[in-house]
Amino acid sequence: MPKTPRLHGPFFARSVHEVAPELIGATLLVDGVGGTIVEVEAYHHTDPAAHSFIGPTQRNAVMFGSPGFAYVYRSYGIHWCLNFVCEPEGSASAVLIRAIEPAEGVAAMRRRRGLSDIRALCSGPGKVGQALAVGPGHNGLALDRAPFELRARDAAPAIVTGPRIGISKAVELPWRYGVAGSAFLSRPFR
DNA sequence: TGGGCGATTCGCT
DNA sequence: GCGAATCGCCCAC
Predict the structure, then answer these.
(1) How far is the CA of A25 from the C1' of C2 (A)?
(2) CB-based contacts of A187, cutoff 8 Å, min separation 6
(3) What Å value separates CA A64 and C1' C10?
């Protein structure tokens, strides 16, 4: 089996609209636990739904830094969500990792999630954070070094797009990407 | 300094 | 399908 290249800086130093669809099918591991990315959303700095739209703040500071780093934020006071920072430094764009098809460390993911159904382990951004044990300590870490391991896909799967989920601004923009027909999506594509 | 609001999830109806 | 849980962030007062 061919060893796929590890994704690093130059891969992310492009528009989120190029990077996001190319992340579909890539492998994401955190401390050896994870699997295949099957769903992401793009957040561009000119996009009213992006955390960076209002300008630099303490929370979104990492988005204004270098591409190829992790931006982790707390959602609804409960969940931790993982993003990959994209584009040249200062552009403040990122890709939200919304769903993963579990492959490595499934036992650990089941334990952390308190569930056995493999389809429910990583089928949502908050679930991914919990299953991969992503937290505030990961905010600002480089994606090409431990604890992250991020590898390019061997071949591009069939990709579908649609409107993003759970936002109230720019709801019409079709910047959600996923594997067509996957059983591991947060929600089906219409 | 306080109130409203999330890039969500889960359980109950 | 609906609403509670839960709290940090952000802006208006």
Answers:
(1) 34
(2) A165
(3) 18
Single out the residue of A129, A127, A126 nearest to residue A138, CA to CA: A129
User: Burial of A15 by CB count in 10 Å (0-12 exposed, 13-18 middle, 19+ buried)?
Assistant: middle
In this predicted structure, the answer to whether residue A38 has a pLDDT above a threshold of 60 is yes
First to last CA, chain A: 35
Q: Which residues contact A130 (CB under 8 A, 6 or more apart)?
A: A79, A80, A112, A113
pLDDT value at position A1?
A: 54
Strand B closer than 7 Å to the CB of A45?
no
DSSP-derived secondary structure for A129-180: HHHTT--GGGTT-BTTSTTEEEE--SSPPPEEEE--SS-SSSTT---EEEET
